[in-house]
Design brief:
Length: about 300
């Protein structure tokens, strides 16, 4: 009995995976990964700096953009140590507690980002549907309360996951298929009945990401209905143009997020390489592209960024 226990929880570790079959070129692969991390950290930090220091950008749209930038930074930084550790130093081992902490932050920030995108959809709906009351509806105190509620609610939903995983026993070496820990994958490594974790994890996904995506879709249905009622073709196009950046952010975030979640839960025969690719897209591409998309579409923000770098 003691021999069995020795191979389980007390000495268990997880082994992370980079890109299978490409271990000999991991150091070269680390170069684009390092560049992407540097660019996304600089890009999101610049957005935060400009919005904070420029009073003319203290508007709901830019405040929500700042929330998105903070979330993107957190999501990327949560996966960065283990990802770069594998590619730079071939360091695959991660302890149970470190793995549980990492998956808590990744999933919490994923849910918070989903909430921020929903708030941004609400912002776009108000500015198009009721522009005269826009400033009175989305006041700074109200935005702060909305952001705080979203963070606390989503963290409370994800918090039970690591504690539920700690109840299980694991064998000494558990090979994960990604360079960071995800709840859907870690729970499959347990030597126990995982039905409670599976049901709870799926319920959280449905009532956060899936529900948010449905509400965002309904917001855009109402936006489209409002826009189509505008008689002026130029005003109609101008109204739709204000939503392009947010639509890009939604597609960049939800497409890999939902695809990866579905593949982990239901895609038993799916390609492992496709799962790995989606996992990297999930944590790197949205934080990398969101500052670029918003700075390209917002003339005001782009002008402030250019001014900062020219000085």
């Amino acid at each position: 009995m003691s021999a069995v226990n020795d191979t389980k929880l007390n000495s268990a570790v997880f082994l992370l995976t980079g890109i299978p079959g490409k271990e000999d070129v991991h150091l070269w692969i680390s170069i684009p990964f390092c560049l992407m991390y540097v660019i996304l950290i600089v890009g999101n930090s610049v957005i935060l700096f400009i919005v904070k220091t420029d009073p003319s950008l203290h508007e709901p749209m830019y405040i929500f953009l700042s929330m998105l930038a903070v979330t993107d930074l957190g999501l990327s930084i949560s996966s960065m140590p283990t990802t770069l550790g594998i590619f730079l130093f071939n360091s695959r081992e991660i302890s149970l507690n470190a793995c549980f902490a990492q998956l808590f932050f990744i999933h919490s920030l994923q849910c918070i980002e989903s909430s921020v995108l929903l708030l941004m959809a609400f912002d776009r709906f108000i500015v198009i549907h009721n522009p005269l009351r826009y400033a009175s509806i989305l006041t700074l105190p109200r935005i702060a309360k909305m952001g705080l509620v979203c963070v606390l609610r989503r963290v409370a939903l994800i918090l039970p996951n690591p504690f539920l995983l700690q109840r299980f026993q694991y064998f000494r070496a558990n090979v994960l298929s990604h360079s960071y820990c995800l709840h859907q994958e870690v729970m499959k490594m347990a030597c126990s009945d995982i039905r409670v974790n599976s049901i709870y994890g799926l319920s959280v996904t449905i009532f956060t990401v899936w529900l948010d995506s449905l509400l965002i879709f309904l917001s855009y249905v109402m936006i489209l209905k409002t826009v189509l009622s505008i008689t002026s073709h130029a005003k109609c196009l101008r109204a739709l143009n204000t939503c392009v950046s947010h639509l890009c952010a939604v597609l960049l975030s939800y497409t890999p997020m939902i695809a990866l979640s579905v593949m982990h839960r239901f895609g038993e025969g799916s390609s492992p390489l496709l799962q790995i690719l989606l996992a990297y897209i999930y944590v790197l591409v949205p934080p990398l592209m969101n500052p670029i998309v918003y700075s390209m579409k917002s003339k005001h923000l782009r002008a402030r960024i250019i001014r900062v770098f020219i000085k």
